[in-house]
Every structure is written in structure tokens, then in C-alpha cells.
Amino acid sequence: MAKKVDQDSLASQYEQMGERPWSYLTAVLKKWESEVGEVLESFEVTRAQLEYLMCVAKFTREGKPATQKDLAASLGRAKNTASEAFSNLEKKGYIVRSSSDADLREKHVVLTEKGLCLANKAIREVALVDQRIFPDERDNEELIRLLKNYL
């Protein structure tokens, strides 16, 4: 038989949950994502798409082949989600994809000049959001230090 839960006890537990770290992390993340989302709307790109563009640039700088599979893995995303994002980026002219000579299923990704310009502009705007939400450098260092303890 199920134990009866009284409303006062449940309400008290709910109030206590609001004072847990995850509650604050979630609230800050929602605020950041909302503001970044607004900024990126003007660029007609999502945060995930911007992250893919930046990851392609990183792979290219490091001399690594930027395959869809490796880019998705680097960002911890599913291959099918990445494929959809790359398809949208290609339609907008931000990347060019080509099949590997060794394996036609493997898609290599290269930034276009248009994609590079967009990513540079967009990331500068995202950095301004970061500065607005996280203005104190010393606090940021401490927050990062604390959060790393949980990874």
C-alpha cells in the first residue's frame, strides 16, 4: 500500500530543492541560453550550429580532418543531429561537405569564407552576453574552479 504524503511535507521538500546547487545552475544556464539564443537569432544560426563552425575552425587549425563524425564526437552530440546541423549550414553557404575518397559515407567539412565571417561576428556577440552575465573575472575563475570539482 502506498504511503500517504501530506501536502505540507511535499511543499517543504519543494522549497528545500530550490536551495540546491542544481537549481541555481539551471536558472543561470536558462538565462544564458535565452540571451545567447536572442543574439544568434539575428545571425539565423543556432548555438549548436555556431559550435560546429567553431569546432571546424579548431580542427582545421590543428591540421586534423574535420569529419562530421569527429566533430559530433568532439562536441558530445549524436551523429544524426550533427548531420542535420551540417545540412542546414551547407544550405546557408557556411560550409562545404565532401565525401572521403576512402569511404563515401565519411563527410569532410570545410568552412567557407561566409561561414568564417559569420562565426567571427556571432562569437563576438556571444562573448558580450558572457560579459554581461558573468562580469567579474575573479568570480568567474572561482566559479570555474568549483564547477570543475564536479566533472
Helix content: 55-70%
Give the C-level CATH assignment of the domain at 27-131: Mainly Alpha
Main structural class: mainly alpha
- Helix count equals 7
Mean pLDDT, as a whole number?
Answer: 90
What general form does the structure show? Answer: elongated
At CATH level 2, the architecture of the domain at 27-131 is Orthogonal Bundle
Largest sheet: 2 strands, antiparallel
* Low-pLDDT residue intervals, each spanning 5 or more residues: none
CA-atom Rg in angstroms? 21 Å
N→C terminal distance: 40 Å
Please trace the helix and strand order, writing H or E for each element: HHHHHEEHH
Textual characterization of the structure:
With 151 residues, this protein is mainly alpha-helical. The protein has a domain at 27-131: Arc Repressor Mutant, subunit A (Orthogonal Bundle). It has seven helices and two strands; from the N terminus they run H-H-H-H-H-E-E-H-H. It has a two-stranded antiparallel sheet. A hairpin with a 7-residue loop joins strand 1 and strand 2 (107-111). Helix 2 packs across helix 6 (113-133) and helix 3 (47-61) crosses helix 6 (113-133). The protein is elongated. The model has no long low-confidence stretch (mean pLDDT 90).
